[in-house]
């Protein structure tokens, strides 16, 4: 069963939601039959690639909030993240355009490393204060999860990956997504926001039960004989 997750790596509740979802999935008895597909979303596509303001200053300027309100909000988010097992250092966060980060995620998905890319970029932004628009930084992060430098260089230049980002965003608009994280289960059920792991568990059970009815397990009676396996063993 497919679970699609629309997310922006600069969204704190996307990281928190990811962790809560993972906690629920870990306890799910049929987790091996779940395919997680990460989808791109940009909360603000107009942020420049060159950093020029802190996270706090950005919120004050663009959200019309006072410094005191912003501090309270960030402190609250940090505590929520801590309860999910995450360390947020928002005072170090570098506000930049997330398009390049999404390109790397789209490329990583072609290598089966979409989840690893999401996790590494979230940690880089919220915990380490790294610039996720900087190509050298992204290349280093990509190498850490097993991506090749030459292929990443090509991906940054290839319009295919920016097009994939835009396609995901357009698809989100068609589905009526108004904020992230946004989880779509089997293209029937949706979960908006960083819900507690219990909420993910309940929705997983309902969606998977319906999916299983339409996709029953095939049980074969096998007569064993000599064969070869993908790992090279022949007997």
Any overview of this molecule?
It is a single chain. This protein is an alpha+beta fold and 235 residues long. The two termini are 34 Å apart. The radius of gyration is 20 Å and the shape is globular. It contains 9 helices and 4 strands. α2 crosses α3. The chain has a 4-stranded mixed β-sheet with strand order 2-1-3-4, sandwiched between helices.
Blueprint of the fold:
Blueprint: E1 2-7, H1 12-27, E2 35-40, H2 55-63, H3 67-83, H4 99-110, H5 114-126, H6 135-144, H7 149-157, H8 159-175, E3 182-185, E4 189-192, H9 197-214
Parallel strand pairs: 1-2
Antiparallel strand pairs: 1-3, 3-4
Task: Give the structure's gist in a few sentences.
With 235 residues, the protein is α+β, with helices and mostly antiparallel strands.
Record field, number of beta strands: 4
Class from helix and strand fractions: alpha+beta
Q: Which regions contain 5 or more consecutive residues with pLDDT less than 50?
A: none
Q: What does the overall shape look like?
A: globular
Beta-strand residue fraction: 5-15%
Continuous helix count:
9
């Amino acid at each position: 069963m497919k679970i699609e997750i629309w997310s922006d790596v600069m969204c704190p509740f996307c990281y928190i939601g990811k962790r809560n979802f993972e906690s629920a999935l870990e306890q799910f008895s049929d987790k091996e039959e779940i395919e997680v597909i990460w989808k791109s979303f940009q909360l603000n596509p107009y942020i420049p690639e060159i950093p020029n303001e802190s996270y706090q200053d950005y919120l004050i300027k663009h959200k019309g909030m006072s410094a005191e309100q912003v501090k309270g909000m960030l402190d609250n988010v940090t505590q929520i993240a801590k309860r999910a097992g995450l360390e947020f250092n928002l005072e170090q966060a570098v506000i930049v355009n997330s398009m390049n980060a999404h390109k790397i995620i789209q490329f990583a998905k072609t290598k089966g490393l979409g989840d690893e890319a999401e996790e590494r970029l979230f940690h880089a932004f919220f915990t380490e204060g790294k610039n996720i628009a900087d190509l050298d930084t992204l290349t280093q992060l990509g190498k850490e999860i097993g991506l090749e430098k030459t292929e990443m260089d090509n991906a940054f230049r290839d319009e295919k990956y920016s097009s994939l980002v835009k396609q995901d965003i357009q698809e989100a608009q068609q589905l009526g997504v108004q904020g992230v994280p946004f989880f779509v289960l089997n293209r029937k059920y949706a979960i908006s926001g960083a819900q507690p792991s219990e909420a993910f568990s309940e929705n997983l059970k309902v969606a998977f039960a319906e999916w299983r009815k339409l996709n029953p397990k095939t049980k074969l009676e096998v007569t064993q004989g000599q064969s070869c396996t993908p790992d090279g063993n022949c007997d």
